[in-house]
Amino acid sequence: MTTLDRSLFQKTFPITAAHVFDERNIKKVLEGCKSDILRSGNATVRLVVTEQEKGSRKKVLVRMKPDVKHDDFSTVSEETRELIHSRILELVPHNLHMGYKDWTYNELIESILPPDLRPAPPIHKVGHIAHLNLRNPCLPYKYLLANLILDKHPIITTVINKIQDVGSWSAYRTFPMELLAGSPDTKVTTTESNCEFRFDFAKVYWNSRLENEHQRIIALFKPGEAVADVMAGAGPFAVPAAKKKVIVWANDINPDAYASLTEGIWRNKVQRILRPFNVDAREFIPTSIRNLYRLSRSPEPLNNTITCHVDHFKPGVKTSLRRAGKTEEEINPTPVKIRLPPTFSHFIMNLPASAPSYLDAFIGAYNGLEHLFFDSHGNVQRELPLVHCYAFHRSVNAENAGKDICEDISKNLGHEIRPDDLEHLENVRLVAPYKTMWCASFRVPVEVAFADVPKPREKDKVELKKEKWWSWALDD
């Protein structure tokens, strides 16, 4: 079957049912016979209320597992036998008829797809969109699968299939897609880490499977630190980090991602602590380093201090918390004044296809700022920032992947980074059979950070003269 015919999914099974004499005992039966009761993804197959004949009382039946026999009490549990002897129920023959609505998605897939194509292709959900990445053997079944998804996943109204790899046709990490079923609407609303994001899935990269990785990295940040998200997308790292009172400068070259990020900043009420940018990553890294330092030294409080009141809760949640006895301070904490630090503690570079190639932007990026990290005697007073650089590798083996990723990092930094120099190497996820996503975390080497480079360009200073950087977030 390659075209869905719902009428074919009809089948009648001879089984056993428990006839409950008194409707008031249904709860007792469901609890006492739970080891014998038929279970299914569709709860309606457990219980049925039928009319024996016109004018008679309703007959309440609880359907039992296929191995339960109505004439053999040894096939049921001791608890069920006690209910039988107590005249609360009796076992009777019953015909179970199941139609299309009674079967679960996985059960339908098992009955349709050939054995070599099972299990069912994974469904990746983003808001109301179900995103498939079908292999060639599954393509003849793509419209059938899409209609099954629409039928069996009520929140899904759009089903798409990825035609080419991410970034294969666009530097913005988007991919060509085909609509398989439902509405062509690709503008989604989704939540992650108690934050709400809105974006056009056709124009902005988003991967719900990376939520655990986002949370892993965010857990490394401390309130009051400054973090630079170099390839931020719609902000899955940046926005939740800002809710932790982490100062975030987030950048993405994609204008649609920048627009979604900006909307998400206001929607999640972190506009005083998160600043969006829309420039090339290679320009953003050194420019943001210099400008953060200049702002931190500014004599004007508007520039160097952030009055931060991060609202973690939606209005409905706040009402529930008040009813639960939470104090007003716990629900609406007092605004906190955060002094802008002179340097970033972390850089996030989540562009695994090419992030290592942008590492040359760190060469000489801290030249002239040695006093931030060393005292007059050369003693370390502050660590250089930690870079979280994502990359793809064919191997799932950390030793093999770490060696090759470090070679790539070294080539772009102009300085050798060995696997032992990494603070952490994380196997993020298997993208394809021979494609694994890794995150290499390492400190910017001293030799790279303070390398001799030409003086900063004059245009790096211009934006400060035009605008106080935090004024965009102030209330009218």
Automatic annotation (TrEMBL):
Binding site for S-adenosyl-L-methionine: H214, D252, I253, D280, A281, N350
Catalysis: reaction(s): guanosine(37) in tRNA + S-adenosyl-L-methionine = N(1)-methylguanosine(37) in tRNA + S-adenosyl-L-homocysteine + H(+)
Compartments reported by the entry: Mitochondrion matrix; Nucleus; Cytoplasm
Top EC class for this record: transferase
Protein known as: tRNA (guanine(37)-N1)-methyltransferase
KW S-adenosyl-L-methionine (keyword) present: yes
Similarity annotation: Belongs to the TRM5 / TYW2 family. Belongs to the class I-like SAM-binding methyltransferase superfamily. TRM5/TYW2 family.
Role: Specifically methylates the N1 position of guanosine-37 in various cytoplasmic and mitochondrial tRNAs. Methylation is not dependent on the nature of the nucleoside 5' of the target nucleoside. This is the first step in the biosynthesis of wybutosine (yW), a modified base adjacent to the anticodon of tRNAs and required for accurate decoding.
Cross-referenced Gene3D superfamilies: Met-10+ protein-like domains, Vaccinia Virus protein VP39
GO MF term set: tRNA (guanine(37)-N1)-methyltransferase activity
Gene (name only): TRM5_3
EC number: 2.1.1.228
Subunit note: Monomer.
Residue stretches making up the SAM-dependent methyltransferase TRM5/TYW2-type domain: 123-446
CDD domains to which the protein is assigned, alphabetical: AdoMet_MTases
InterPro entries: MeTrfase_TRM5/TYW2, SAM-dependent_MTases_sf, TRM5-TYW2-like_MTfase, TRM5/TYW2-like_N, tRNA_Gua_MeTrfase_euk
Keywords: Cytoplasm, Methyltransferase, Mitochondrion, Nucleus, S-adenosyl-L-methionine, Transferase, tRNA processing
Pfam families: TRM5-TYW2_MTfase (PF02475), TYW2_N_2 (PF25133)
GO terms for biological process, alphabetical: methylation
